[in-house]
Structure formats: C-alpha cells, structure tokens
Specification:
It is built from 19 helices and 14 strands. Strands 8-7-6-9-11-10 form a 6-stranded mixed beta sheet, sandwiched between helices. It has a 5-stranded mixed beta sheet with strand order 3-2-1-4-5, with helices on both faces. It has a 3-stranded mixed beta sheet with strand order 12-13-14. InterPro entries: ATPase_NBD, GppA/Ppx_hydrolase, Ppx_GppA_C, Ppx_GppA_N, PyroPPase_GppA_Ppx.
C-alpha cells in the first residue's frame, strides 16, 4: 500500500445520514448552515444568521470593541448549542476579513472556539473568494465551458472571481466592504454627491488593479453573492427598475435616491431592511465602482455564498476529492521538488504515523498534514540549499494556497521549518494552542523520516519499529543495516538533543 492509499485508509469518508455544519464568521453577519449528506448529495436542514457586525467594532489599531466581542461570543455559543451533536470533523468554522485584520487574533479566537465548541480557521481573502465561487456554482450551475464573474460584497472586503465550471481562474480580494466603506467615507453620517463622486474614484482605483486583466479574459454572466448584493437587487425590484437583478441603468437611480436622504440615518429606500440602513451606502458605492471598472451591464443575484461553498468543500474532502491535493501537486511541480525523494520520506513518515497515532491520539487531519509536509519538505531547495527549510517554510506560510486555511498553512510551514537542523523556539508560535501537541509530534515524525532518507537511497528500510509512551519515542532499526550506514548512525546519535526541542525524548534501539 502506497502512502496515498495509506492516508486514505485512515480517513473518515462521509456516510449516508451524516450531518455537516459550516459557520461563516463574516464582518457583517455570522451565518451557520447545517446539512445532511443523503444519497451523495447535501440537503440543507437548518440556517442561522445573526447580524454581529464585527467590522463595526474593529478600531484602527486592530483592537475589537468589548461589546462587539461579547455579542460575537454569545452568537457562537448559540450556534454551538445547535451543532453540539455533530462530530468535530464534520464542522468547519471560518473567520474572514475582520479577524484577519486583528492585531492579536488569538485573543478573540481562543474564547470564540470555547463558545462554539469547535476550532475556528482564519482564511485568506483569495481562499474566501474560492469558497464563495464554489457555493454560487453549486447553487446555480454554470453553462458548460462558459466563464462567469462572481462579486461578493461583505462587511469588510469584496471578492471578485472569474471561474469556469466549479473551478476558479482568477481570484481577488479588496479591502472595500459595505461597513468599512461606509465608515471610511461617511463616518460623520452625512451624504453628498461631491463626497460620493470622490469616493467612487478612490474605490474604483482598487478595482482598476485587475480590471483590465478581468475584462480581457471576459465572462458570459455576472452574479452577485451575499447579503449586500441581495439587498441592492431587492431595492431595484422594489423600485420597479428590474425583477431582482442589478443593472447599469438601475444602479444610478438607486444611488440618486439614496443621496436624496442627505444623511445615513435618513435613508429610506424601497425594499431596504432596517438592519442594513446603516451600511447600504457603502455597499451601493462599492458596487457602482465595480460596475464602472469592469464595464458591467447586468448582474444577477445568487442566494448562495461562502457558507454553501464551505459545505461543498467539506463534501469534496469527505469523498476523496480534496481540493488541497491539487494545490500540493501544483506546488511540487512549480518548485521542481524531487518527487522520488518526497515519496520515500512520505512513505516512511506514514509507517511511523501508523505506529504512533494511537498512543499520541493523532487523527486523520494530522496524517494529511504529515503526508503533505513530506511532499513539500524540500520546496526551499528551489531557492537556495543553505537554510532551505527556512525558505520553504516562508513560501508555504505566505502563499495563497487554494483549499488551505491560514492555520493549516502555518501547520505545514512549521513541519517544513523543523524537519532538519536546529529547531527555533518560535517555530510554532503562529499556531493556536489546540494544534500545538499534534503539530510538535507530527513534526517529530517528519524529522525522523527525513533523517532516515538523507542519503536519498531508494532501498527500503528493512525494520522500522516505533514505540511511543508520552514524550518518549523508541525507534527500532536493524543493527546490520544501520552499521553499514555510518553517516546515518552519526546523525541518529546526534539527534536526541535536537528533537528534544519538540518535547520528544528519542531513543534508538537496534537488534
């Protein structure tokens, strides 16, 4: 059984009747969608939404207002009650722009995870864009072979995506959401045509960074996702301008009607909910800038958004079509990684994992991280041989890798950073406390696997026994095999003081 098959044998595939939950900690609202896996399909059984308005509570220094923080934690506690019987591996909670901008995100995430009862992952803007597109594509299947533009205006950011089928081609995320833009340009509550024109030019400059490339690629239809676009579409319908879409002709009339109010608190648009009155100006402004920059004439509105995309991403992960696999393959090809050496290290790492997992309580997610860490451990060689583990870790942590959350990338980066040489004390600082035990122990397994294959010898290791008991790790090897490899023997003799930095006490036994 090869390493990939071994990884699959330890995974937990979806079974008929399994429940899944996706939680979206957005900058405006928190959403939760609960679905049942039935006959290979997802059936939505519950939806919850609360207007937490996290972005309103974020100050210029990245601090979160206590009242907003308490509101967010109370919401997550209620969500947690609803999903307390769903296994952790069937729940994904994702935090977006507001948490990305926090100066000390762990000060919010730790109590937030306690309130929810599940881990919370922070994702990049481009990963958010991928998941938004996935949700829209499943809700409104695209025409075969045609390109589609999806625009999602959130509370703190706006995502623009071009895709074909269920795959994204271009993804961009801008710091111009409905809350952020309203606060930025109309913080005093006053509206005026002059201020609006200046703001549209400024926001439009953000879209101009990629507008030419998008327009050159083209699309056959444009779709708006999430609450702000749905609200604007509803206003257009209520004003008798469209049947629910947003058009280049209707949008200026919505804007002019909005500006007639003169003040945010006096806005009275047909079809506008009281909840969105305080932020609709920023949403309309961002959409007008997008229409101008991208040359849009019409945008339909989707009921789906990121949370639905998260559910379908989980469906892929649970049915053997994990999108992260494609990303790992792309990285190995882009950086010219020696696939033979990576496979040798991965295979040995999997053998060690199988023996250590029960005692160390490592799970299938740890197995995947170990396998991917093995495939990428030499990525930094494409940059320089000296300190290549440092270069590789930096690339993994700071790249936009489709399918991965920030914590997953930080986990992988820590494995790559610590697989050789001295282990820095700061190697795991970016990880939340809940991931530290498995990250350190998984790193120890990768470190041993990489060391055993330092010579790049393709000969299989005849004996590879591993006994773990708490921090103690006893590695059993064939005495004659090891005797014929003096360099490896010297490396193993010098390894216990090094690996101790991972909280592991290594012993070598030969027979």
């Amino acid at each position: 059984m090869d390493a990939l098959a071994r990884a699959g044998s330890l995974s937990t595939p979806l079974r008929d009747g399994d429940m899944l939950a996706a939680i979206d900690l957005g900058s405006n609202s928190f959403h939760m969608v609960v679905a049942a896996y039935t006959l290979g399909q997802l059936r939505i059984v519950d939806r919850l939404r609360e207007p937490v308005r996290m972005a309103v509570g974020l100050d210029a220094r990245g601090g979160l207002d206590r009242a907003v923080r308490d509101r967010a934690l109370a919401c997550l506690a209620r969500f947690g009650q609803r999903i307390r019987d769903i296994p952790p591996q069937r729940v994904r909670a994702l935090a977006t722009n507001t948490v990305r901008l926090m100066a000390a995100p762990q000060s919010f995430l730790v109590p937030a995870e306690t309130a929810l009862g599940h881990g919370i992952e922070v994702i990049s803007g481009r990963e958010e864009a991928r998941l938004i597109y996935l949700g829209v594509a499943h809700a409104q299947p695209p025409k075969p072979g045609s390109l589609r533009l999806v625009i999602d205006i959130g509370g703190g950011s706006t995502e623009c995506i071009i895709g074909r089928g269920f795959q994204t081609i271009e993804r961009e995320s801008l710091q111009v959401g409905c809350i952020a833009t309203t606060r930025r340009f109309f913080g005093d509550g006053r509206l005026s045509p002059k201020k609006w024109r200046e703001a549209v030019i400024e926001v439009g400059a953000e879209f101009q960074q990629f507008a030419n490339a998008y327009r050159a690629l083209g699309w056959s239809e444009a779709i708006g996702a999430s609450g702000t676009n749905k609200e604007i579409g509803g206003i257009c319908a209520a004003m008798g301008l469209t049947k629910g879409a947003v058009t280049a002709a209707a949008l200026p009339r919505v804007r002019d009607r909005l500006l007639e109010a003169g003040r945010i608190d006096a806005i009275d648009l047909p079809g506008l909910s009281a909840e969105r009155r305080s932020t609709i100006a920023g949403g309309v402004l961002v959409l007008e800038a997008a229409f101008d920059a991208l040359g849009l004439e019409r945008m339909a509105v989707s009921k789906a958004a990121m949370r639905e995309g998260v559910l379908y991403d989980m469906l892929g992960r649970g049915s053997g079509h994990d999108p992260r696999e494609a990303s790992i393959l792309a990285l190995t090809q882009r950086y010219g990684i020696d696939e033979g050496q990576a496979a040798r290290v991965e295979g040995t790492a999997m053998r060690l994992f199988e023996q250590a997992a029960p005692a160390w309580k490592l799970d299938p997610d740890d197995l995947l991280m170990l396998a991917w860490g093995a495939r990428l451990h030499e990525l930094g060689l494409a940059i320089a041989h000296s300190q290549y583990q440092v270069h590789g870790a930096y690339v993994i942590e700071h790249s936009d890798i489709a399918g991965f959350s920030r914590q997953e990338q930080q986990f992988l980066a820590a494995l790559v950073r610590t697989h050789r040489r001295k282990i820095p004390k700061s190697a795991f600082d970016a990880l939340p406390d809940r991931l530290l035990p498995s990250a350190r122990r998984t790193a120890a397994l990768l470190r041993i696997a990489a060391l055993l294959h330092r010579s790049r010898d393709s000969e299989e290791i005849p004996r590879l026994d591993l006994l773990v008991d708490g921090p103690r790790m006893v590695l059993g090897l064939d005495r004659r095999w090891l005797h014929n490899r003096p360099l490896l023997r010297a490396d193993l003799e010098g390894e216990p003081p090094q690996i101790a930095a991972l909280g592991v006490q290594l012993e070598i036994a030969t027979t």
